[in-house]
């Protein structure tokens, strides 16, 4: 009788762990939400050091673009 209970327990474990997921579930898979694209920022190269910085964060002086106040000072010759 012990042998029969052990066999049934092993078969139950095999059924729940291996066979049941392989047969597929009755639940419908969730649809993935489309990823909303974030607005992209325009990057521009610094005239002095060559680092790319966002146009929002950089400094523009005439035709030249600087990534920081320090590069603007070096670009002005100060």
Key terms:
78 residues, rod-shaped, alpha+beta, two-stranded antiparallel sheet, 2 helices
Question: How would you characterize this protein structure?
Answer:
- The protein is an alpha+beta fold.
- Helices cover 38% and strands 15% of the residues.
- The longest helix is centred in the N-terminal third of the chain and has 22 residues, at 2-23.
- The chain has a two-stranded antiparallel sheet. Strands 3-4 form a two-stranded antiparallel sheet.
- It has a domain at 42-78.
- A hairpin with a 2-residue loop joins strand 3 (59-61) and strand 4 (64-66).
Report strand %.
15-25%
Number of strands: 4
Determine the mean pLDDT. 82
Q: Please bin the fraction of helical residues.
A: 25-40%
Summary?
This protein is of the alpha+beta class and 78 residues long.
Spell out the blueprint of helices and strands.
Blueprint: H1 2-23, E1 43-45, E2 52-54, E3 59-61, E4 64-66, H2 69-76
Antiparallel strand pairs: 1-2, 3-4
């Amino acid at each position: 009788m012990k042998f029969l209970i052990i066999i049934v327990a092993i078969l139950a474990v095999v059924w729940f762990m291996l066979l049941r997921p392989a047969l597929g579930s009755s639940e419908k898979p969730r649809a993935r939400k489309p990823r909303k694209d974030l607005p992209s920022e325009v990057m521009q190269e610094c005239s002095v050091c060559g680092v790319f910085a966002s146009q929002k964060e950089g400094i523009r002086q005439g035709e030249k673009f600087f990534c920081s106040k320090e590069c603007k000072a070096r670009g002005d010759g100060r």
